[in-house]
Specification:
The chain has two domains: 67 residues, Arc Repressor Mutant, subunit A (Orthogonal Bundle), CATH 1.10.10; 117 residues, no CATH class. The protein is mainly α and 193 residues long. It contains ten helices and no strands. This is AcrR family transcriptional regulator.
Length: 193
């Protein structure tokens, strides 16, 4: 019979998630992960297999807690364009006023160029694209689009804006200008209604 885990898994995954957001997968050392999680290297390997296993678990945690949580809070079904506007504006306010960036975006940049896209990144981007398309079709101008092409292409454009915003935030861009860019985008979309 295997030993039961004697640690708070959510706290461990949150600590690892923040280190991976800040330093990337390659940049995060086992020592960094030990400090962030409170686990010794042996416990990390025993519990998660290896650094890649911990990264995968931390990314899954980020997907559930941060991404799905943000969508549920700001752009739930039925919220339409206003929900999307609020979702985009929420990117400007990290809970700790930091700029660690998005684990999805950071991972896409770090692992970009691989033959196959990172499966966690692919799933997260798909969730965003699907959410954007769904909220767009709640708006009358997009709902009238019989084949959904307008909503599909607009969702891709919004995905590019969303990811671009996250890169610029991580790079320290002035948030006042980014806020205006978000407002301009959604004001323009609202003129289509």
């Amino acid at each position: 019979m295997g030993r039961t885990r004697e640690f708070d898994e959510e706290a461990v995954l949150t600590g690892a998630m923040h280190i991976f957001r800040k330093q990337g997968y390659q940049g995060a050392s086992i020592r960094d992960l030990e400090e962030a999680t409170g686990l010794k290297g042996g416990s990390i390997y025993h519990s998660f297999g290896d650094k890649a296993g911990l990264f995968d678990a931390a990314f899954g945690h980020y997907h559930r807690i941060v991404l799905e949580g943000r969508i549920k809070r700001y752009a739930p079904p039925g919220s339409g364009l206003q929900g999307l506007r609020e979702l985009f504006l929420s990117l400007l306010h990290e809970p700790d006023n930091g700029s660690l960036g998005c684990l999805i975006t950071n991972t896409a940049v770090e692992f970009g160029g691989d033959v196959e896209p990172h499966p966690r990144v692919e799933a997260a981007l798909s969730l965003l694209r699907t959410t954007f398309r769904s909220r767009l079709t709640e708006a009358s101008a997009f709902a009238r689009d019989a084949d959904g092409a307008k909503a599909t292409w607009t969702a891709i454009r919004l995905l590019a804006l969303y990811q671009g915003l996250l890169v610029l935030i991580r790079g320290g861009e002035d948030k006042t200008g980014l806020r205006q860019a978000i407002q301009d985008e959604f004001n323009q979309l609202e003129t289509l209604l």
